[in-house]
UniProtKB/TrEMBL annotation:
Name by which UniProt lists this protein: DNA polymerase IV
Cofactor(s), by name: Mg(2+)
Family annotation (PROSITE patterns): UMUC
Site, Substrate discrimination: residue positions: 19
GO biological process, one term: SOS response
Key words, A-Z: Cytoplasm, DNA damage, DNA repair, DNA replication, DNA-binding, DNA-directed DNA polymerase, Magnesium, Metal-binding, Mutator protein, Nucleotidyltransferase, Transferase
Gene source species: Lacinutrix venerupis
Main location: cytoplasm
Catalytic reaction equation(s): DNA(n) + a 2'-deoxyribonucleoside 5'-triphosphate = DNA(n+1) + diphosphate
Amino acid sequence: MLNNLPIRKIIHVDMDAFYASVEQMDNPELIGKPLAVGGGGDRGVVSAASYEARKFGVRSAISGVKARRLCPDLIFVKPRFDRYKEISQKIRAIFLDYTDLVEPLSLDEAYLDVTENKKGNPSASLIAEEIRTRIFNEVGLTASAGISVNKFVAKIASDYNKPNGQKTVNPEEVLEFLEALDIRKFYGIGKVTAEKMYQKGIYTGHDLKSKSLEFLEQNFGKSGKYYYYIVRGIHNSEVKPNRIRKSLAAERTFSKNLSSEVFMLEKLKHISEEVSKRLNRSKVAGKTVTLKIKYSDFTLQTRSKTLPYFISDKSVVLETAKELLYQEKLSNSVRLLGISLSNLNTEKKTKKVEQKSVSVQLKINF
């Protein structure tokens, strides 16, 4: 059962261990060795890990201390974002040879709509294979790809045969593919939600599909409707070349935990200046200010306030962040502070479209 919109041919391209692979490409001595991009010190965090390091359990977002404990021979290198952006632009240029409908998600992944493409090739699978070959030959890196009827299924599929592989899920295979998946593989279902689903007896896509819309909304709120439709292969989001930014943020991790709010205010001043600089550079403003606080025990807290008008000025951002800091007493010393602005003036209101499920008898060449 798929939706009644025209079936699209969507490719999700995901570079393999992108940051780490760039470092290994630029420094052949690192090839085949466990590598982490990020800080290896007491306060450092892993930004990316090579596949050699992942075998030991090293993953992005874990602390450098934990990463070293998992893999004593781990090599740390500092991130070079200018270099990653340079490589990303080369890869994006390859995408644009095939279609103008390219929606980047980050430097290392993007959606492509090749339903109608510049090569006149009816096979999205062959296009994905050709793109991956060109990335390897012209850039020197490997990429994985997922190919299917919508962005949701394509993204899941791109992780299926990683690294350096691809997976096509044809229209008639979508439901069977989703039903067999572990619920943790569903894009948009995080660790906490997966645990809650386990408690409700939901372990696979088949289990999720057996639950009514009423049950899912009752137990998972607004997300329940999303889960109800995606497990039925219904995801109508189009590939948007000019993806609208929904938030803008800056944060700082401190070399020593802060327990004095006086010192925190000084840090917030610098963070506010950086946020304001990024807002002005992007020519956007926002109404909702969110203060992110990570405590010394790694617990995370956010506090938000929505203003009646759009702001981008650093002084207003700072004053709002101060108000949020003093909103309630801090529960511990602080290792990280961050400020983000959302509810931006670039967001457009879109009408909610009623989604319906109908049988599709079309056999499309993927």
